[in-house]
Specification:
The chain has about 270 residues and is of the alpha+beta class. It contains six helices and twelve strands.
Length: about 270
């Protein structure tokens, strides 16, 4: 009988003992950390201004021009307002061999380089580069305000495009918005800003092949040295005023900064 009573007594005694201290380390949950997803470099800033959600793209075009001119053009575009163009055209000459015309152009946010047909390369400064140079000298709230307005602008453009698609065609299996003005017909692939078709009295340019998400070697957008700097309107560009407008939400000039012409049609 004593043995039978002893076992429950031992169990009760064990339960009454204070719990042993755990050897496991105590885990503390930190306070919520605010994630700063604002650009910290000019490259990241330019990507906010000119995003390319699907990655870099390459478009091949068939080109025709005055006097029976014909040829091809290839354009590679990436986020941050970067673009590289190469064209090869042939001009028939009566009673003589056709003249071959080759050219190239590279655009970055800061400048545009064009190798002219006569072989004299030109370099033009661009306003977006000036915006990037001055942006990081602003106070943080102003920086954030500018980025927030730019992001909102892109969101509103996307919503407006979805709600009011306009006259949509398809060129090279990609949708493009068709418009006509001043004797020119244009069909723009809005997600990239690239025209897939351009027709005027002088030139016709039609996309024949589109590649998305291409791997781009950064040398694609390197500007060669030795070009002649061309006088342009940048001297009159007031970067301080431009940044003030952006911070206030006035983005009327933004589309013009981001959508330059293709050089062969400009």
């Amino acid at each position: 009988m004593k043995a039978r009573l002893l076992l429950p007594l031992v169990w009760l005694t064990a339960c009454a003992q204070p719990p042993a201290e755990s050897s496991e380390p105590e885990l503390t949950v930190p306070d919520a950390v605010e994630i700063d997803d604002y650009p910290a470099s000019p490259q990241a800033l330019f990507a906010e201004f000119a995003p390319m959600p699907g990655g870099a793209v390459t478009v091949e075009y068939a080109v025709s021009g005055p006097g029976g001119m014909s040829g091809t053009m290839t354009v590679t575009a990436a986020e941050g307002a970067r673009r590289a163009e190469h064209w090869s055209l042939s001009m028939p000459m009566p009673g003589a061999q056709a003249v071959e015309i080759r050219g190239a152009s590279v655009q970055t946010p800061a400048q545009s380089w064009t190798d002219a047909a006569e072989g004299s390369a030109e370099l033009v400064a661009l306003p977006l580069g000036r915006v990037g140079d001055r942006f990081f000298s602003l106070d943080v709230p102003t920086q954030h305000a500018i980025v927030d307005h730019v992001r909102t602008w892109h969101e509103e453009v996307a919503r407006g495009r979805e709600a009011h698609p306009g006259s949509i065609d398809a060129i090279a299996d990609k949708p493009c918005l068709r418009s006509q003005t001043a004797g020119q017909t244009l069909c723009v692939w809005e997600q990239t800003g690239l025209p897939l078709e351009y027709r005027s009295e002088a030139f016709t340019l039609v996309a024949t092949k589109v590649l998305e998400g291409v791997d781009v070697d950064e040398t694609t957008f390197q500007i060669p040295g030795g070009a002649q700097r061309k006088a342009d309107a940048l001297e009159a560009f007031d970067v301080k005023k431009s940044l003030e407008k952006l911070a206030a939400g006035d983005l009327a000039e933004l589309p013009g900064l981001l959508q330059p012409r293709l050089r062969v049609t400009g």
